[in-house]
Amino acid sequence: MSTPRLARATLVAFDLTGGPTRESMGRMLQVVSDDTTRLMAGEPTLTDTAAYTVDPAIPVVISWGLGHGFLTKLGLAAQAPPGFGPVPLAGDQAFCDGDILLHVESQSALLVSHAVRQITRTMEPFGAVRWTQHGFVDSAPDSLRTGRNLFGQIDGTANPRTPEDFDDQVWMSDGPRWSRGGTQIVVRRIEMNLPTWDSISEAEKEKSIGRRLSDGAPLTGRVESDPMDLDAKDAAGRLMIPLNAHARRATSQGTVQKFLRRPFNYDDVAPGGLSSHGMMFLAYTTNIAERFSPVLARLTAVDALNKWTTPVGSATFVIPPAWPAGSFLAQELIEG
Amino acid sequence: MTKKFRIVSTALAAIALALTATLSGCASAPAEPSVTATDVWIRAIPDLDEQTMTGLFGNFTNNTDTEIKILGGTIDASIADEILDAHEVVMDDAGEMVMQEAVGGIPIPANGQVELKMGGYHVMLWNLKAPLEVGQKVKVILNFSDGSSLPIEAVVRSTETEGEHYHESEGEHHHGTPTPATSMSN
C-alpha cells in the first residue's frame, strides 16, 4: 500500500461457501498464498491455464483482506483488531461487504486480468465472487502522491508521506498478533455525476473542493503542500474556503483522523449500456473507527461535493502483513 | 464407448528395484538424489461418486549423465491403491486424446527435465479411499529406473482444464492383476 498506485487495479470480494472451517480455510489460505507468491514473482501459478501470459518484467502486486464475515463465520470475531468493523451504507447494497478481498494491481491490464482469473479459479472450492470492481489511475511513477480523479481534482494531498507517517497512520502495531504489521482497508465505491459536474464553472468547482484544480494548492495558498488557512477571507469578507468545501470538511484538523487515501477511478459500462463513472475510494488506516469513520460522518453530513457523488458500495477488510517464505497469509490467525 | 488400459507390471518391477536399492545402500554420505522434483501437485477429487482416480504432476530433474525413467511409485493404502503408475495422454490415429501406460516409464533426459502435466505425462492414483480436497498435502514415493526413489509431498490443487480422459468404464481397470495388453481406445 505504501507503494505508488499502479495503472490498473481489480478488487474482488468473495463470500465463503460450503461451511468454512479452520481446516478448510487453512488449505485455502495456503493455496492462494502460493498463487500470490508465484504471480508476484512473474511466474505462472501451479495450475495456470494461461501460463505464458506472465511477464517477470512487469510487476503484479497482490494483497488480501479478511472481512468481518470471515472472522465471524470461523468464530474468530474476538480476533478483530481494534476499531475494525463494517462501515454502513444506506440504500444501494451492491458492492458491499464480502468475506475475503483480493486486490490485484499492475501497469498491465492483461496481467491484472490473468492474475484475477487464475486466483478466482483457485478460490472456487472455497468461495463465490460477491462483487468485482475495476479501477485505473494515471500511471505516473509518483501517483501515490496525488493523482487526478474524474472531477479533474488532485486527490490525496493530505496523505502520509514518510515511513513514520505510515507507522502512525497505516500499519497496526497493537491488537491481535496476526494483524500486527497489517492495516485496515475501507473500500467505498462512489458514483460521480459527471454531466452535472461538467456543467458548472471552474470557480464553482474550486470553491466546492477548496483547492485549485490546476495544481491542488489550497485556495489560500501557493503550492499543494501549503496548509489551508481556514479563516482567510477575500476582499468582500467571504471565506476563501467555504464552510462546506470538501477539503475543509475532510481535514483532520490536528486530530488522529488521518489515513492513506489510495483511490482508483472507474469508467464502466452500466446496465443498459450507459457509462458509469466514479471512484473506488480505498482508505488504509490503523483503526477505522477512530480515524476513518469520523471523517466519513462529517462528509456525509456536509460536503459540497455530495451534490455530484453517490456512494454505491462499502466494504471493510483487515489486510494481514506480508507473510515470510515458508509461511502463508494469516497463518497465525488460522492456526492460533 | 469402451476404454481399456494396457497393463503391464512395471509398478511391481519398480518396487523390486527400490528394494534392491535399499538393500545395497552403503553408509557413505548421502549424495544429491539422482532425481529431484519441484511443483508437484495432484488433481483434486472432491467427490468420489464422480471419480476415484486422479493424476500427479510436476517438474522432475535428472541430476545424472544418464537417462532415467519415472517408473511409478507408492502411496499410503489409506489414500488410494498403493501402487502408482506412470501414464501418458496421447492422440490416437482417430484424433482422440487417450490415456495409456507410459511403457517403460517416463523418460527424464540426462541432465535434463521432464514436466508432468495435464494432457501429457503423469502418475496415476487409483481407487481413492477418500476425497482429495484442494490444499491437502499428500505424501508419495516415486521410483526411478536407476533404482532410486524419492519421497515427495504433493499439494492437491484443482483445475477446470478438460485436458485428458480419466474416466473409464465400470470394471475395466486396472493394475495389480496384469491383463492382456490392449491399446486404450474410445
Give me the secondary-structure category of chain B: mainly beta
CATH class of the domain at 10-21 and 40-157 in chain B: Mainly Beta
Helix-residue proportion of chain B = under 10%
Main interface pair? Answer: A-B, 15 and 14 residues
**What can be said about the biggest beta sheet of chain B?**
7 strands, mixed, barrel
Q: Give, in order, the helices and strands of chain B.
A: HEEEEEEEEEE
Q: What CATH architecture label of the domain at 10-21 and 40-157 in chain B applies?
A: Sandwich
Average per-residue pLDDT of chain A, rounded, comes to 94
Rg of chain B, Cα atoms, Å = 16 Å
Shape summary of chain A: globular
As for the number of domains of chain A, it is 1
Characterization of this structure:
The complex is a heterodimer of chains A (about 325) and B (about 190). Chain A has about 325 residues and is an alpha+beta fold. Chain A has one domain. Chain A is about 25% helix and about 25% strand. Chain A has 9 helices and 11 strands. In chain A, the strands form 2 sheets. In chain A, strands 1, 2, 3, 4, 7, 8, 9, 10 and 11 form a 9-stranded antiparallel β-sheet that branches. Chain A has a two-stranded antiparallel ribbon with strand order 5-6. Chain B is mainly β and about 190 residues long. Chain B has a domain of about 130 residues: Immunoglobulin-like (Sandwich). Chain B is built from 1 helix and 10 strands. The N terminus and C terminus of chain B are likely disordered. In chain B, about 10% of the residues lie in helices and about 35% in strands. Chains A and B meet through helix 1 of A and loops of B.
